[in-house]
Every structure is written in C-alpha cells, then in structure tokens.
Design goal:
The protein is of the alpha/beta class. The protein folds into two domains: 285 residues, Alpha-Beta Barrel (TIM Barrel), CATH 3.20.20; 92 residues, Alpha-Beta Plaits, CATH 3.30.70. Helices cover 45% and strands 18% of the residues. The protein is built from 16 helices and twelve strands. The strands form two sheets. An eight-stranded parallel barrel has the order 1-2-3-4-5-6-7-8, surrounded by nine helices. It has a four-stranded antiparallel beta sheet with strand order 10-11-9-12. Strand 2, helix 3 and strand 3 form a beta-alpha-beta unit. Helix 2 crosses helix 12. The longest helix has 16 residues. Bound molecules: 1,3-dihydroxyacetonephosphate. The site of 1,3-dihydroxyacetonephosphate has 15 residues, from strand 3 and strand 8.
C-alpha cells in the first residue's frame, strides 16, 4: 500500500532536487490518467483535490476512489487537500482520507492568515498530517482555474515568509513569484531572485501554484531554487476538453462514453511529460525506501455495560458515534454487540484513526474526555482497550 507520509515524500524531493507533481483531479478520468502516468514513469505523485473545485464533484465519493487508487499503487502516493478554505474543511478532508492539507488564507491580512493557518496546523499536526500554507497571492488570468482566483498578484516577501513559517509551523510554503492560476497571457516573468532568497531563508519545501504554461528552463530554475511541489491543473483540463471537442467533431450520434473516449490517455500523456520534466521519474523505489507508509490505527475496545440494558447500550453507542466521529483524525466509528449470547464481552467500539498521533490527541480532546468521563467509563469498568496498527 504505497500511500506514504507526504512530509517524507517532499523531504526526499527537497534533498535530491526534483519536484513532485500535485495534479488536481476532478473526476475518475483524471484520477486514472494521473495514476497511469505515475506508474509508467515510476514516479512519486500527489493526488490533489481542490476545495475550489468541489462544485464539480462529490468530495466524499471521489475520495473513496482516490484512496483506493493510492492503496493499490506500486508508486508512492500522497493525497492532498488543495486550497482548503477553513479549519472545518481541513478536518473533513482528513476524515475522508487526505494525508496532507493546504490552508489557503492568502487573501486575508498577514495577521489573519497567521491565525487561521496556525489553527489548522495545530489540528493537523495532532493527526500526523503535514500542512501547506500560502503567503502572497497567486491570482488567475484565464480559464476554469483562473475564475476561482480573482484579484491581483501579491508577491511573497522574504521577511514575511520567515515570520509566517515560524509563527504558524507550516511544513511547506506556497509562494507567489509571478505564476498565475489558469492559462498564461504572454511570456510569464518569474522573480527567481525573490524565490532564491525565500529558499535560503526558510529551507523548507516550497510550492508553486499555477504550474501550467511555464518553459522547461523556468521549471528547472524553480526546482534549483527549492520548489519541490508543483500544482498542475489547467493543461490537463484543456487537453481533456480538446479531446472531447475532437470526438464531437467526428459527427454522428455520440453518447457520453463516446465523447469522453481517450481523455484518460491525453491526461496521462501530459502528466508523464511533466513528471519527466520535473525530475521525479524513476524515483519511486528510492522514495519508498525513505518514506513512512501511511497506516491507520484501529482503536479497539471490548466491554460490558453495567446497569444498562440492550436499549440503553444502543443509545450510548449512537450518542458516542455522533460525538466521537467529529474529533479530528477519526476516520470512522463502528459499534457492535456480540452475536454469541455467552460472549465474555458483550459490546465493542472500533474507532479508526488516520495516524498513530491521533491516539494522544483523541485521548485529550474535550469531546472525548466529556463522553468518556460522563457516559462511558461509569458503566464500562469491565473493558479491554488496545490500539492496533
Ligand atoms: P494551473 O491550473 O495553472 O495549472 O494551477 C493549478 C494550481 O495551482 C492548483 O492549486
């Protein structure tokens, strides 16, 4: 199951001076195309889901397929929430299976950005999940992705970048040095001096948004200056769209499946081209050797409920499921009653955590403490609790 820790993955890229592609996906064709390319090029890859695209798909449903694709891959994969807009969406994305999150408060003032980002970092680090923040603003110019990012560019400054990283504790920083979301108009001009200074001051993996449309030399220079994650979407969307238009132009009564035929392959070709340009091809084996696998924890309790009949125990489990499911890092809560009437323990909880760090953060979370102290422990003195990897 090469779903791996994203911090380890980007640390490897940072040290070995290449960039991992974070490809935004909006449907299964994108997911299949990205994975096909990563497997073919033997490259680590980040499957990225942008909150700004949530109107295009059902996030929970697409996450189930995304996680499955990562688990069955033979190359290292991380799953990232792109442009997360709030603490609540970061919590939800971790519940659905993201193991990296971006908090995008770049449109706010510096102080507000720090305060929102810090809150997300505290929550996510308690779940073992690394966080990308953004400082400065990367606007959009033209195309689907551009519409989501109105306004003017604000360049990242070196002084603010150092303060932002030390005050928030983000693991990766998205910088604004001249790229734009969507299609470029004219020759993009990038401020490599600024990027070089930020890289020297921070020494953490840097991220470029608006990866579409740069020259080979520009990609190379980005990577030489500390960029280790490049976000890429518009070119994939445009290639897929062009394929659909070409299918439509063949005439005849084309149905949905005929119109979209071949889109996976054109997306895969474009992803592979970028993977090779950014130097991540053939790194899969080495990355797997250097990355912790991303493994959930099963927090299992078997118990007897003193003084509660079957209906009372059911009610407690329903209430507990509601409360505990909302705690950050909890992916699912299962409850059950023994099938054998003479079982030594009558009831069970199985709480799935996204990462071993959650064992501690869950234990001390106020909702867990209140439920356990007031409801569960008084009746469940006879119990066994074990955490399984
Ligand atoms: P492009 O759409 O310009 O490739 O940018 C993608 C991006 O930055 C997503 O976060």
């Amino acid at each position: 199951m090469p779903l791996v820790n994203m911090k380890d993955m980007l640390a490897h890229a940072h040290k070995n001076r290449y960039a991992v592609g974070a490809f935004d996906l909006v449907n299964l064709d994108f997911l299949q195309g990205i994975m096909q390319a990563a497997e073919k090029a033997r490259a680590p890859v980040i499957l990225s889901l942008a909150e700004s695209h949530f109107e295009y798909f059902d996030f929970e449903l697409i996450m189930a397929a995304t996680e499955k694709a990562a688990m069955r891959a033979r190359v290292p994969v991380a799953i990232h929430l792109d442009h997360g807009a709030s603490l609540a969406s970061a919590v939800q994305s971790i519940r659905f299976g993201c193991n990296g999150v971006m908090v995008d408060a770049s449109h706010l003032s510096f102080d507000e950005n720090v305060s929102v980002s810090r809150e997300v970092v505290q929550m996510a680090h308690g779940c073992g999940v690394p966080v990308e923040g953004e400082l400065g603003y990367v606007p959009g110019v033209e195309g689907e992705d551009a519409e989501k990012h109105p306004g003017d560019i604000q360049y990242t400054t070196v002084e603010q970048a150092s303060d932002y990283v030390s005050e928030t504790g983000v693991d990766f920083l998205a910088v604004s040095i001249g790229t734009v979301h969507g299609r470029m108009k004219g020759e993009p001009v990038l401020d490599f001096d600024r990027l070089g200074e930020i890289n020297a001051a921070l020494g953490i993996p840097l991220v470029i948004h608006g990866g579409t449309g740069l020259s080979e030399a520009q990609y190379r220079q980005l990577i030489e200056n500390g960029v280790t994650k490049i976000n890429y979407y518009t070119a994939l969307s445009d290639k897929g769209g062009a394929k659909i238009m070409a299918n439509a132009a063949t005439g005849g009564k084309l149905g949905y499946a005929h119109l979209t035929q071949g889109t996976v392959d054109v997306i895969a070709e474009e992803v592979e081209r970028m993977i090779r340009l950014w130097g991540s091809a053939d790194k899969a084996g080495d990355v797997l050797d250097h990355c912790a696998l991303w493994k959930p924890v099963e927090h299992l309790i078997i118990y007897n409920a003193e003084g509660l009949d079957e209906a009372g125990a059911d009610e407690m489990m329903r209430e507990g499921t509601r409360i505990l499911s909302g705690i950050p890092g909890v992916r699912a809560v299962f409850t059950g009653s023994a099938i054998q009437p003479d079982a030594a323990y009558r009831y069970t909880w199985l709480v799935r955590f996204c990462h071993p760090m959650v064992i501690e953060s869950y234990k001390h979370h106020p909702d867990h403490v209140a439920f356990a102290d007031n409801y569960f422990r008084p009746v469940a003195g006879d119990r066994i609790s074990i955490d399984y990897s």
